[in-house]
């Protein structure tokens, strides 16, 4: 690169110092960063992620479901972009959607309770190896 000699006693370089163009740019960038701080990121604090109750409930009812299955669960009364807003907590789900999800969770809880009761009854009766044979 070509050498530049900055003449004059004032300025941010001393008189008679030889610098390349790149060195001048680097020094100027360092001075600006010291004065103003970095400008390449947001200056706001990150909010801690709070899990959305609706998202947790939907994940229990439809684990790994695609958007068509989620729309079908809500009886195709709502499109998926709206459901995404409910899941993210940006919008509040309507009462009918919350009731539908709560009913499904209660049904699953009753089924799980019945299965646990059946397992407890088997535990006192016979070993599982005899039942499977």
Order of helices and strands: EEHHHHHH
Number of domains: 2
Put simply, the count of helices is: 6
Report Rg: 33 Å
Average predicted local confidence, pLDDT: 77
Biggest beta sheet attributes = 2 strands, antiparallel
Structure class:
mainly alpha
Low-confidence stretches: none
Q: List the strand order in the largest sheet.
A: 1-2
Assess the beta-strand content as a share of residues: under 5%
Number of beta-strand segments: 2
How helical, in percent, are the residues? 55-70%
- What distance separates the N and C termini? 85 Å
Specify the overall morphology: elongated
Features:
mainly alpha, single chain, 133 residues, two-stranded antiparallel sheet, 2 domains, 6 helices, elongated
Description of the molecule:
It is a single chain. The protein is mostly helical and 133 residues long. The protein has two domains: 3-36, no CATH class; 53-132, no CATH class. The chain has six helices and two strands, in the order ββαααααα. It has helices spanning 21-36, 53-61, 67-73, 80-88, 95-125, 128-132; strands at residues 3-5, 18-20. It has a two-stranded antiparallel sheet with strand order 1-2. The chain is elongated and about 90 Å long.
